[in-house]
Write a structure and sequence with these properties.
This protein is 35% helix and 21% strand. It is an alpha+beta fold. It has a five-stranded antiparallel sheet with strand order 2-17-18-19-20, covered by helices on one side. A hairpin with a 4-residue loop joins strand 3 and strand 4 (207-213). The termini are far apart.
């Protein structure tokens, strides 16, 4: 009975939300949204529970469709627009969207058939079950009351409804607030050709965006005087995700928050060796990174992972700090991404820009990096040390403790031209301006080198290195 109570309340609201986001407002006196039967209650002057749910969803949709400051303007989505989005979202989400679309077009029989098929394929997909229940109830009679559901269970159902409505709202807003064509998240200044894919997560929208690196390669050598160019990133995936129960901006071990920053996938864990909680697999990231450690953040074990068998997805905020996808969506990631070379940007809100707008920042930083390369090639240890911050820290070693390692490296190479190959630049801005730099360092006359990662921070308008290590 509780499941039917939820279905009566939740997805009628979902249908209205879809209509309000994708269709013009209804004229006075027209039929109810999607043809759903919302006749008044038998109690004179008292709205039915379904009517109340619909009204609340309508109010929420009106506010959301006009919200400002989140960087992506809302747009009305026509049938052709939706067809372009379908290949990007997960297959199951695309099927759910199609059902919503049919409901908004009052094609209830077709919607019912597709809802039955989706539930049959994924019986643990709660929103799909609720849509099906709503369609079935709308066929028979107006929804007037919860029947004999005890008050305590009704309250629990309303709490669950709020979570489901939030999930549904976020999914639908992902359709109407689309990244502009040809734009990329502002963190991606340059990606080496080895980074075949990149991931950007927008916690405010509960979305994970997967990009394929299809564009020009970065400069083969900074020593040649060429500036690296921004790789052309093509959006190939757009998935619903869940973050930490306590939200984002992880600070401490056990705070149930998802970290913000620039990370890399470090391994691919086989589901056979994991508890069912993690679903079809897991992709750990390198939290805490050098910037996190610089700021005293603690904790570990932040993964991108799937869901247990009894769940299709989680609520928008439901993990212990990990980023959680549905198992089918995670399988799509597992089939594409590579360990150690796939960056993962996790932001409270992504800022989408045209790639060419990043040219000034990239070129300005390139000047600092080229100066560092040139001084190191010359073996000038005094000048070289000036590029390093007093806050330098490498696994607990301060600059004075770590510097003998650099001295040995430079003296071992002698005066030899260094090349920086396969350069990636990722920019993270919050209270500080940080650059995460990855490259292959190869000395002249050698065919192979070492892959290094540096973290630079702008200090008094000068770029300084506060971490350097081999990966």
């Amino acid at each position: 009975m509780r499941k039917w109570a939820l279905s009566i309340l939740a997805v009628g609201a979902t249908a209205v939300l879809l209509w309000s986001l994708t269709r013009p407002p209804a004229l006075p006196g027209t039929a109810p949204v999607g043809g759903l039967n919302t006749a008044p209650s038998n109690t004179v002057g008292q709205p039915s529970l379904l009517q109340s749910a619909l009204a609340k969803a309508q109010d929420a949709a009106s506010g959301l469709s006009g919200r400002e400051g989140l960087g992506l303007p809302p747009t009305r989505m026509g049938a052709q627009d939706l067809q372009q989005v379908f290949p990007l979202v997960g297959r199951e989400e695309a099927r759910l969207i199609e059902i919503y679309q049919l409901i908004s077009q009052t094609q209830h029989r077709e919607a019912l058939e597709k809802a039955e098929s989706l539930v049959r394929d994924h019986p643990n997909f709660q929103l799909a079950n609720l849509v099906l229940g709503d369609l079935l109830s709308a066929q028979t009679r107006p929804v007037r009351q919860l029947g004999d559901v005890p008050d305590t269970k009704a309250i629990a159902a309303l709490e669950q409804l709020a979570i489901l409505r939030d999930e549904s709202r976020r999914r639908l807003l992902a359709l109407t607030e689309r990244p502009p064509e040809g734009s990329i998240p502002s963190q991606f200044l340059t990606l080496a050709s080895q980074s075949r894919h990149a991931i950007a997560i927008d916690a405010s929208r509960s979305r994970l965006y997967l990009f394929e690196n299809t564009g020009a390669k970065a400069s083969a050598s900074a020593a040649a005087g060429d500036n690296p160019v921004a790789n052309s990133l093509r959006l190939v995936g757009d998935y619903y995700i869940s973050v930490g129960q306590s939200g984002i901006e992880k600070l401490l071990e056990g705070d149930k928050r998802t970290p913000l920053g620039v990370y890399y996938i470090t391994s691919n864990l086989n589901a056979a060796n994991l508890p069912d909680l993690y679903g079809v697999g897991a992709l750990p990231i390198n939290y805490p990174n050098a910037l996190d450690l610089q700021r005293g953040k603690t904790g570990s074990g932040i993964w991108l992972h799937g869901t247990p068998k009894e769940q299709f997805v989680r609520a928008p905020r439901a993990s212990d700090g990990c980023v959680v996808l549905s198992n089918p969506d995670l399988q799509s990631l597992l089939a594409r991404v590579q360990i150690r070379t796939t960056p993962v940007v996790i932001a409270a809100q992504l800022h989408w820009v045209k790639p060419e707008t990043l040219d000034p920042d990239r070129q300005q930083f390139q000047q600092a990096l080229e100066a560092w390369r040139s001084v190191k090639s010359q073996g000038d240890l005094t000048q070289l040390k000036g590029f390093y911050s007093e806050r330098f820290n490498n696994q607990g070693q301060k600059l004075a403790d770590w510097w003998p390692r650099m001295e040995g490296e430079v003296r071992g190479n002698g005066v030899r031209e260094l090349q920086l190959k396969d350069l990636s630049l990722l920019n993270w801005r919050d209270k500080d301006d940080t650059m995460v730099v990855t490259f292959g360092e190869v000395a002249a006359g050698q065919s192979r080198g070492v892959t290094k990662r540096q973290y630079w921070m702008r200090e008094s308008d000068q770029w300084k290195i506060f971490y350097e290590g081999s990966i």
